[in-house]
Q: What sequence folds into this?
């Protein structure tokens, strides 16, 4: 049985094909690939050779594109029409001619072609230089990757860390302001069953899992933390439980987060931020 | 696994009839077990080395298909769930035939996924509950399939009038099948305040959905589910991150109301009556040595229930959702002792081949209890499984219902 995608398939380590599959998977995960930069919903928009510049610029303006691959009728890429190629080639148009009436194929520039499986690091130089690369080859254009795609990719990759940081700091902040330092110490000791007279453990020393154990400890929640988090301990627990799971997924590198998981982190982050603001704090 | 019911077998015969039409519609009420029939049909198609595409409106449904097909271990499955997966197909993955490709309409219509599918031919395409404007948008995809099936609910049949109707499974068809387990209602009563708060929240969520021109999809009206939906609305209209308001509509006024309702639900002094009802039936069944499955339609609900049980000395043996690997789920189920419980999502139980002896299912309330009907359709009386359904009493507390 073969399974590709988000399903995990038990692997027989003795089988040669399985070893290859494992190696391929490791290869896939070890390096960032060009394919990871391509937006899920990218529909390639191209223009045919012979298209007037006026029309191409109109299309670029309306779709907010900076470049358009230019194609022949048999599907070959002849180059890319970009704002840069347009301005660079203006000098080749005679003064008496209307530049907007010229055809795009006279004003193209060459963008580098890369493969979906190429390493991202080797491709960034081309993207920095030309603002875009074409994915595929001259006969088969598969996608286009631009600087905006790189920014989006990096934001998508870093956003979970930013959200998790804001959540964890907000939980700590709210707990700190729920009671005195002495009460907090006793709450930590009780929830984590620390030995009496042992070293003081602050919230900053705890993992998220330990932090939530302290927060959601029945006695401490009722005495202190409900003032900041609301009376219903179970709702708080149910709301924060997925954060713990998502954090483990992020920090143990168990694949990209789904949109729902990102949305969950975002919602929890905003929910906590409001509680911090209500109590008059905030960073 | 329960054998196919008569009406299901009739549908399978129709699907495998050499004289069948190229395209056909299967309409069914929830719980008709149509996907089971399609899975049997896919076994037949895939055994000939042909390629099938199943297209679903949501990723969740794709995951359910993947889970079920994987559990059957008869069909190789490829899930087209990322650009990388699409590029693997485009770059000539060697295993293009003899398998089932699963994807969402979004990926089938846009981006590299669409490009990858545009280069394949299919023996069969299954449209699983497509949205109404889908047929035209997948026209080119359909043109490359030998056979087409659309699985729709009965309300959507009109939009498929161009395709012959292969089956129309009604509640009566399901009810005619003998041997369904008996369903026992466990009633609970909510306070007036609880009902008012819940109605107010649902009205607000309806307003939000209507402003975004989307139907309100409320799979549960429990406290945690409503709390999560309110948080989502509150955050969408929050000044802290306006970019999250994907619909583009101004929802800041709704967001303010959501925050107010969040404060109310979080500070409600009333204990949750559903949990109380759950405790009473669970305690009785566990004391009798039953293996109890508490089923809920949302993961939020499973967490909420499990947290409650753990904090009242009835910690469940595990919380099972389709997100947990199948082997892990199986291991927890196999080690479930009499007098122990698990909290699970409905999807998990729809995949169960054999229920442990003396199993009791307790169903957490959800609007229409559609998912419960889905589970019921996969189990027969001979399995010995007993069903309890938590159900809100229509009478108010002072009216003295039991």
A:
């Amino acid at each position: 049985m073969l399974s590709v995608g988000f399903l995990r398939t038990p692997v027989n380590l003795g089988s040669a094909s399985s070893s290859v599959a494992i190696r391929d998977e490791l290869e896939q995960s070890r390096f960032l690939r060009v394919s990871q930069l391509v937006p899920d919903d990218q529909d390639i928009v191209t223009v045919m050779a012979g298209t007037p510049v006026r029309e191409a610029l109109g299309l670029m303006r309306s779709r907010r594109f900076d470049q358009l691959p230019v194609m022949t009728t048999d599907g070959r890429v002849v180059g890319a029409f970009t704002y840069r190629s347009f301005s660079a080639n203006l000098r080749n148009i005679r003064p008496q001619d209307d530049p907007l009436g010229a055809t795009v194929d006279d004003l193209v520039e060459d963008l580098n072609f890369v493969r979906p499986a190429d390493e991202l690091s080797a491709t960034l130089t081309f993207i920095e230089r030309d603002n875009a690369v074409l994915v595929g080859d001259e006969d088969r254009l598969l996608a286009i990757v631009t600087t905006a795609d790189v920014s989006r990719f990096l934001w998508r990759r870093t956003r979970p860390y930013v959200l998790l940081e804001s959540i964890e700091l907000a939980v700590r902040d709210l707990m700190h302001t729920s009671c005195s330092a002495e009460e907090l110490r006793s709450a930590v000791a009780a929830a984590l069953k620390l030995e009496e007279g042992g070293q003081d453990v602050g919230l900053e020393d705890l993992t998220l899992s330990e932090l939530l154990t302290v927060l959601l400890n029945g006695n401490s929640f009722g005495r202190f933390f409900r003032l900041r988090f609301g009376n219903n301990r179970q709702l708080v627990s149910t709301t924060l439980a997925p954060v713990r799971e998502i954090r483990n997924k992020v920090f143990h590198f168990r694949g990209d987060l789904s949109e729902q998981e990102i949305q969950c982190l975002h919602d929890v982050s905003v929910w906590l931020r409001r509680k911090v603001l209500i109590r008059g704090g905030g960073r | 696994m329960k054998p196919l019911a008569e009406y299901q077998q009739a549908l399978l015969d129709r699907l495998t009839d050499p004289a069948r039409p190229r395209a056909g519609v299967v309409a069914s009420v929830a719980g008709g077990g149509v996907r089971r029939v399609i899975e049997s049909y896919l076994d037949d198609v895939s055994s000939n080395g042909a390629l099938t595409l199943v297209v679903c409106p949501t990723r969740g449904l794709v995951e359910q298909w993947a889970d079920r097909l994987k559990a059957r271990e008869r069909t190789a499955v490829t899930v087209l769930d990322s650009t990388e997966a699409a590029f693997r197909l485009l770059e000539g993955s060697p295993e293009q035939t003899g398998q089932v490709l699963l994807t969402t309409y979004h990926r089938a219509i846009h981006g590299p996924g669409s490009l990858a599918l545009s280069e394949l031919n299919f023996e069969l395409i299954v449209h699983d509950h497509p949205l109404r404007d889908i047929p035209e948008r997948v026209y080119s995809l359909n043109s490359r399939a030998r056979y087409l099936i659309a699985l729709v609910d009965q309300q959507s049949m009109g939009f498929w009038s161009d395709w012959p109707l292969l089956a129309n499974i009604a509640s009566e068809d399901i009810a005619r099948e003998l041997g369904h387990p008996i369903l026992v209602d466990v009633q609970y009563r909510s306070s007036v305040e609880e009902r008012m708060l819940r109605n107010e929240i649902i009205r607000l969520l309806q307003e939000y959905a209507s402003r975004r021109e989307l139907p309100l999809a409320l799979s549960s009206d429990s406290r945690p589910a409503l709390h999560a939906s309110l948080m989502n609305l509150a955050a969408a209209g929050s000044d802290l991150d306006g970019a999250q308001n994907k619909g583009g509509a101004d929802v800041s006024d709704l967001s303010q109301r959501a925050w107010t309702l969040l404060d109310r639900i979080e500070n409600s002094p009333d204990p949750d009556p559903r949990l109380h009802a759950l405790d009473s039936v669970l305690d009785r069944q566990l004391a009798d040595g039953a293996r109890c499955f508490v089923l809920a339609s949302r993961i939020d609900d499973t967490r909420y229930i499990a947290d409650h049980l753990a904090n009242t000395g009835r910690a469940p043996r595990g919380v099972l959702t389709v997100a947990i690997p199948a082997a892990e789920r199986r291991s927890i189920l196999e080690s479930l002792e009499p007098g122990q419980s698990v909290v699970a999502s409905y999807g998990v139980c729809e995949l169960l081949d054999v229920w442990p002896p003396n199993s009791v299912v307790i169903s957490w309330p959800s609007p229409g209890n559609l998912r419960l009907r889905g589970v019921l359709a996969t189990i027969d009386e001979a399995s010995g499984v007993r069903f309890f359904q938590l159900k809100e009493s229509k009478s108010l507390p002072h009216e003295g219902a039991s």
Remarks:
- Chain A has a mean pLDDT of 86.
- Residues 94 and 252 of chain A are 61 Å apart (CA to CA).
- The longest strand of chain A covers residues 140-146.
